[in-house]
Amino acid sequence: MIVGGVEGGHGMADGQMTAAAFLIAELRRARVRRGWSQDELAKAVNYSASMVSAVELGQQPPTAKYLELVDRALDTGGLFGRMSTELVSLDRAQPWLRGWQAIFEQARAVRWYEPRYVPGLFQTEDYARAVFEAGGLLAPEEVDRRLTARMERQDVLHSERAPQIVAVLDEAVLRRRVGGRKVMRDQTLHLVGIATAHPRVRLHVVPRSAEEYPGLGGQFALAALPDGTELAYLECQVRGQELDQPQDLLRLQRVWEATLGEALPPQASIELMNEVAESWS
């Protein structure tokens, strides 16, 4: 998973995009090319907008009936139905993408704000385990499964396909105890290492001296895709929400600029993270 509580899957097999991931990307592309929102496509195929979103996020594999209706609505001559039966079926595991990961693996640039947790992509194994074990809501085997998946997904940071990432964390993320003092010290130093050495990651921290600012409304991420499309992703307790409407994107872009304006520059952020790490010693 990339952000706090959203579970993600894989779109890459041996470094290659899967047919399932390709189908998802093409479904979104065809809708955008027609100039339709997810709501408009939903009306045309008589499905809920949440179903359209879940399919485009890879949270739910599209059924044959769904693809038939999309093909008819977009007048594609049955293309998506054929892709599903003739291409996706060839994937050994059909690893459908889920949630934010679907967007992240296609993005060329990501702007990412987090007021609660260290983003999953930057979590240490001990911190991630503590997040999953919180409250005893997950069975031990589910904790292990999610932990393994999260650690594997961090490989994307070291791949040639890694996007440029600018991440802004509220200082509260570094101060909230997750998993004990040693876990927090190691996690904060891990962030320092990423901020110092990773060529495609820039980290900023909003200091606790900052007063109320727009980002405190909640986590969000903005992703720029290679085709020029921009998408936003919001996380909630139950499932993530993808946004692609211009008014929503404009609002979040303004929130991002205001939030970044409250954050410390990269070097000052690194110094603050080192200071916090010492406080956990």
TrEMBL record:
Superkingdom of this entry's organism? Bacteria
The protein's matches in InterPro entries, at most eight in alphabetical order, are given as: Cro/C1-type_HTH, DUF5753, Lambda_DNA-bd_dom_sf
Q: Which CDD domains does the record associate with it?
A: HTH_XRE
Which Pfam families did the record assign? DUF5753 (PF19054), HTH_31 (PF13560)
Q: Which residues form a coiled coil?
A: none
User: HTH cro/C1-type domain: from which residue to which, for each copy?
Assistant: 27-80
Protein name per its UniProtKB record = HTH cro/C1-type domain-containing protein
- Taxon lineage: Bacteria, Bacillati, Actinomycetota, Actinomycetes, Micromonosporales
